[in-house]
Amino acid sequence: QYGGVPQEAAEPVKKKKKWWIWLIVAAAVIIAGVGVAVFLIFNNIKKNYENAQELYAQGQYTEAAEEFDKLGTYSNSAELAERSRLWTSAKEAEKSAGKDPDKWEKASQAYALIPEEPDAVSASGTCHRKSLYYQACRTFDNADGSAEEVTKAKGLFESCGGIEDSSARITECENELKYIEATGLLEAENWAEAEPVFALLAAAGYKDADEMNELCQDEQAYAQGKSLMAEKKWAEAEEIFDSLADKDFKDSLALWLECDDWMIYEEAEALLAEGHFYDAYKKFDEIYGGPYEGMPDIYSRKEACIQPLPASGEVYHNPTYSNNTVELTIDN
After folding, report:
1. Which sign does the torsion angle of CA 67, 71, 73, 76 carry?
2. This model's pTM is above 0.85
3. How confident is the prediction along the chain (332 residues), in pLDDT tens digits per residue?
4. The Cα angle at residue 179 between residues 178 and 181, in degrees rounded to 5
């Protein structure tokens, strides 16, 4: 063909263009496949990251740490993995603290290491208060009657922020301080001041305050009885010691008997002074105990009741009876 390209020469050009087309299509397919693969991989990593976050949110920190470690440098996985381990460490410290204040403080410090976590700040504060609580318990239990140590324990309980039963323990400390005060008054034999304190504690059911309150009352009654004896008010003293003797309090039974003997003695002396010798003798003979300080020998007082025979030989005279044949026999 004149003025154009021969048909035989045009066919190779067409074939060459088809080869480049197939190459472009193949490249596009490969690129698309890689893109899809990258998308799928990225989507899977994102899904794993979200799963790890869910474990973290649920408090499954050991599992969360493992998942975040698998994600390597993706997003903030390394940071969250470290936080998860800090949470795990803090939780374990809290779980093993028991009643040891030092371990609770270590748990508090472990939570404080977790950054930017409100829950961790709260947990740290709770552990610190529990540390104070158990320190207060230990101080109180080891106080051994020391007002200073009980006061220290009370201050620690007050700083616990109402955790556990700290409010009740504060009241216990206050009662113990009153008990120590009352016990000191008791040891100083200041029964009158000790009694109302023990009475208050008895109303609260604290320790043996009811027994101590009764002891103070008995001691005051005993002292009153002794004072009445010193004033020779035997009947009033006897009544007091009679009540105390029922409780077997000190030597109340012996003092009750002494009061009774003194009353008999004074009655016998009155009869003797009135010349009722035989009645006086019998009264003196009723005295059971003794000898008592200030009381004469009873035997000598009985001897004083025995009167000598009159010089006339007349032992008894009845002026209304004049018969001289009557005989009087006295049996000893």
Report:
1. negative
2. no
3. 444 545 555 555 555 556 666 666 666 556 655 554 444 455 578 888 889 889 988 989 999 999 888 888 888 889 999 999 999 999 999 999 999 999 999 999 999 999 888 999 999 999 999 999 999 999 999 999 999 999 999 999 999 989 999 999 999 999 999 999 999 999 999 999 999 999 999 999 999 999 999 999 999 999 999 999 999 999 999 999 999 999 999 999 999 999 999 999 999 999 999 999 999 999 999 997 778 888 999 999 999 999 887 666 666 666 776 666 666 676 65
4. 65
Number of H helices, E strands in the chain: 13, 0
Q: How far apart are CA 282 and CA 81, in angstroms?
A: 106
- Closest CA relative to residue 298, chosen from 287, 282, 311: 287
Q: What number of other Cβ atoms are within 10 A of residue 299's Cβ? A: 10
**Is the separation of the CB atoms in 255 and 241 below 8 Å?**
yes
Q: Which two tokens stand for residue 29?
A: 């397919």
302 in Cβ contact with 285 (< 8 Å): yes
Q: Which of 268, 237, 266 is nearest to 254 (CA)?
A: 237
Neighbour count for residue 286 (Cβ, 10 Å): 13
Let me know: does 51 contact 67? Beta carbons within 8 Å: yes
Three-class DSSP category at 166: helix
Q: For residue 292, count CB atoms less than 10 angstroms from its CB and return exposed for 0-12, middle for 13-18, buried for 19 or more.
A: middle
| Residues, the chain | 332
Q: Give dist(CA 49, CA 74) in Å, integer.
A: 8
Are 237 and 259 a contacting pair, CB within 8 Å?
Answer: yes
